Amino acid sequence: MNTIRNSKTARIVIIGAGPSGIAAATKLIESGFENVLVIEAENRVGGRIYTVDFADNVVDLGAQWCHGEKKNVVYELVKDLNLLETTGTIYDDYVCIRSNREVLSDDVADVLKTIAFETIPERQKGLLKYEGSLGSYLVETYWRELEKTPNIDRTIAHEFLDNMKKFENSVEASDTVFEVSGQGHLDYWICEGELLLNWKDKGFHTLLKLLMKCKGNETNDFGILHKRVILNKKIEHIDWQKGDEAIIKCVDGQLIEADHIICTVSLGVLKENYKKMFTPLLPPAKCRAIEGLKLGTVNKFFMEFKVPFGPPDWTGFMFLWTQEDLDELRNTDYFWLESVFGFFRVSYQPRILGGWIIGPHGRHMETLTVSEVQKAILWLFRKFFTFPIPEPINFMRTQWYSNPNFRGSYTFRSMYTDELRTGAWDLASPLTNGAGKPVLQFAGEATHTHYYSTVHGAVESGWREAERLIAFYQSRPSQL
Ligand SMILES: Cc1cc2nc3c(=O)[nH]c(=O)nc-3n(C[C@H](O)[C@H](O)[C@H](O)COP(=O)(O)OP(=O)(O)OC[C@H]3O[C@@H](n4cnc5c(N)ncnc54)[C@H](O)[C@@H]3O)c2cc1C
Q1: 207 CB under 6 A from ligand 1?
Q2: In ligand 1, which atom is closest to the CA atom of 453?
Q3: CATH code for the domain in which residue 212 is found
Q4: 311 alpha carbon, distance to own chain's centre
Q5: Pick from 477, 388, 472, 379: nearest CA to 432
Q6: What are the contacts of 428-436 at 24+ separation with CB within 8 A?
Q7: Which end of the chain is more exposed for a tag (fewer CB within 10 A), N or C?
Q8: Banded pLDDT at 448 (limits 50, 70, 90)
Q9: Residue 462 lies inside a defined structural domain of this protein
């Protein structure tokens, strides 16, 4: 016999305690739902928000900045609380240094940076009529604009372009800019306002505490989700059409019955597991979205030194490889350093440098030990700089791809996504039973049509699925 549920009795299981899962759970609790359980495979909440103690305060191993202000729900939530601060020009004023140790003059670097990066509004317009990849668009426009400045050395321009492509890959989380869809790139909406708002000395975890309405600072304080979050529990299988309910099987063998499941696992986890994770198999449109949307790897390094690193006026530095040095590097064990594109100062952490690596080389780096990685990075610094390089006091790197609970960093729209004519809407659509009840819902950054790859997109997606359930139970008042 079917049990008729209402908002107090409906059993809702949310898989994943990242920002989307926490946003969904807290909205449901605040809307009067009582039977809400969040199941998380890791030993912590936050997912790809991961703030850890380091050096003078904290660093963010995952999401670091609130990207923009207008229509950004994260910004809206905290704008009056004095928690965010602009990162300034750290990511504009960096130094460009060549592998032959030549530092580009400000004049040359400024021209190249302007051509490469300060054309975003025009880029958005130009892409409207462009059929190809973001990469081919960027390369074409770069050389076209450069035609107007014949005094710039073409060899240096080439080296800069290579570095710019790596930077762009870090924005997209793509392996190559030539796989990013030019049209798909336009699906992403930039929120107006400051694009790099940092969380001062507190980190992005602050947002989770606000969502959960935590009062204290203890790591096991889940606020209004008290006793509703289970950590270290991994979901292995979901039977989403078991009569009128769904049965969830955990890796430890426990079975959990649910009326509704909100699945927030990353696109990387879905890609790896969707064929065996769901019974019945997901519908073709959902499978196409999982196959067609892409997520890649962006990893970070954090280095703590005794005193601030390098010349005081450097906000960061980007590595430009000469062809000769690159050919040589590619024949060594350090080949992967090619994709370490730059290091920058970290806000509120004067003694730290934060570096970036992208793509397949980033995945290779994850397979090495921390000390191997640290040694290689110091070799890189010594190759590029003329001044003595001190040993760091502490070194950390991320491994977003090798962790089976993530399998990558964030999502983008590829040429293949376009080819399959799929998108976030297919991933987001809920699976219902015959009576129209949402049984298996999907949230998470990858399901957001316009704010994918961000925390604000993840939070909105969690709210979207919570609201779907709120609306469902509001539309059935006679059964309450
Ligand atoms: C290096 C890096 C830098 C970033 N920088 C920024 C930034 O500056 N600004 C920004 O807005 N965004 C940034 N992002 C993106 C942002 O972190 C993500 O978009 C967002 O956190 C995704 O949230 P989510 O809830 O969709 O997924 P997640 O945070 O991945 O949450 C999903 C949760 O599901 C859990 N899980 C997975 N499988 C299972 C299972 N089988 N059973 C139970 N639990 C499971 C995972 O452990 C995880 O906790 C960055 C990400 C990375 C990796």
Answers
A1: no
A2: 19
A3: 3.50.50.60
A4: 31
A5: 472
A6: 428/461, 428/464, 429/285, 429/286, 430/465, 430/468, 431/240, 431/282, 431/283, 431/286, 433/241, 433/244
A7: N
A8: very high
A9: yes
Q: What is the mean pLDDT of residues 162-191?
A: 96
Cα separation of 48 and 50, whole Å? 6
The tally of domains found in the chain comes to 3
Q: For ligand 1, atom 19, which residue shows the shortest CA distance?
A: 454
Q: What is the pLDDT of residue 192?
A: 95
C-alpha to C-alpha distance for 56 and 346, rounded to whole angstroms = 11
Which amino acid, residue 339? S
Largest Cα–Cα separation, the chain? 80
CB 365 within 8 A of CB 397: yes
Residue whose CA is closest, atom 1 of ligand 1? 62
Domain carrying residue 152: 106-187
Give the whole-angstrom CA distance, residue 187 versus residue 33. 34
What pLDDT sits at residue 261?
A: 98
Question: pLDDT (tens digit, 9 = 90+) per residue, 408-429?
Answer: 999 999 999 999 999 999 999 9
Q: Considering the domain boundaries, does residue 95 fall inside one? A: no
What value does the mean pLDDT of the chain take?
95
